[in-house]
Automatic annotation (TrEMBL):
Name the record gives this protein: EAL domain-containing protein
Pfam family membership, one: EAL
InterPro entries for the chain: Cyclic-di-GMP_PDE-like, EAL_dom, EAL_sf
Domain EAL: from-to ranges: 1-223
Superkingdom of source: Bacteria
Organism lineage: Bacteria, Pseudomonadati, Pseudomonadota, Gammaproteobacteria, Enterobacterales
C-alpha cells in the first residue's frame, strides 16, 4: 500500500511470534511497518497509523484480512492464532458491516488486539463497541500496564488474553520485590482471562525469571 504524506511511504508487514514457556508457537502478531520508497526513512508504526486518513486505515485493514485469508490453511492446520491490531475506525467498520463480521468469523484463528489507549476502554462493558466486539471475536488487550486505562474492562471479562507492556515488565524486573510482584500480578490477571503474554523478553535473564512464576501454563512470551 502506497501512502502519500510529506514523503511517499509504503506499508509492509512483519510477524512477531508468541511462544509458550515450553517453546511452542501459539500466535503471530501482524505488525505494520512504514518505510519511504527510497528506503532511507522508517516511521514507527504508531505514528504511521495515526497519520493515516480513515479510508487509508480501512484499506490497510483489508490488506491484512487478505493476508489472513491467503494463509488460513497454515494457521488452522498449526492451531496458531493471528492477531491484528485495531483502533476506533476499524472497530466501527466491523460493527457496522454484518457481512464483514460474518466473513471474519469464518476464520476463528483471527484475533484482534486493542490497546489500553482505545477510546473509553475504562468504561468496560459500558463501552458498547468493546462489549459487542468481545461477543463475536477473540480479543487481546495490548500494552497492559502502560497506565492508560483502568482494570474495569478486564474485570468485566471482555478480553481473552492480556499482553503486558514490555516497558512495564522491564520496570518490574528491576524492582526489589520482583518475584513477589510478578507472581501476584500474573496470578491475578489469569483469574480474569485465558492467558497472559509478557512482551519484551529479549534477554535470557528475563525468560529465566519468568520460569519461576507460579502460572507457567498460562504465560506466553514475545520479543
Amino acid at each position: 500500500m502506497n501512502i502519500q504524506l510529506e514523503a511517499d511511504f509504503i506499508s509492509s508487514y512483519v510477524f512477531q511470534p508468541v511462544y509458550s514457556m515450553e517453546g511452542r508457537l501459539l500466535a503471530v502478531e501482524m505488525l505494520s511497518r512504514f518505510n519511504s520508497l527510497d528506503g532511507d526513512l522508517a516511521m514507527p508504526a504508531e505514528i504511521g497509523i495515526n497519520l493515516l486518513a480513515p479510508e487509508q486505515r480501512i484499506e490497510l485493514f483489508n490488506e491484512q484480512l487478505k493476508l489472513a485469508e491467503r494463509h488460513a490453511d497454515w494457521f488452522t492446520g498449526n492451531s496458531v492464532q493471528l492477531t491484528i491490531n485495531i483502533e476506533e475506525t476499524i472497530v466501527e467498520l466491523i460493527l457496522s458491516d454484518p457481512a464483514l463480521c460474518q466473513w471474519i468469523r469464518q476464520y476463528p484463528f483471527i484475533a484482534f488486539e486493542m490497546s489500553e489507549s482505545f477510546s473509553n476502554l475504562s468504561a468496560g462493558k459500558n463501552n458498547p463497541y468493546v462489549q459487542r466486539l468481545s461477543e463475536m471475536f477473540t480479543l487481546w488487550l495490548d500494552d497492559f500496564g502502560s497506565g492508560k486505562a483502568t482494570l474495569t474492562a478486564l474485570y468485566d471479562g471482555l478480553f481473552d488474553y492480556v499482553k503486558i507492556d514490555k516497558r512495564f515488565y522491564w520496570q518490574l524486573f528491576t524492582h526489589q520485590g520482583y518475584d513477589v510482584v510478578i507472581d501476584s500480578l500474573l496470578k491475578n490477571i489469569n483469574l480474569l482471562c485465558k492467558g497472559v503474554i509478557v512482551g519484551g523478553i529479549e534477554k535470557k535473564e528475563y525468560f529465566n525469571k519468568l520460569r519461576y512464576a507460579g502460572v507457567l501454563g498460562k504465560v506466553r512470551t514475545s520479543s
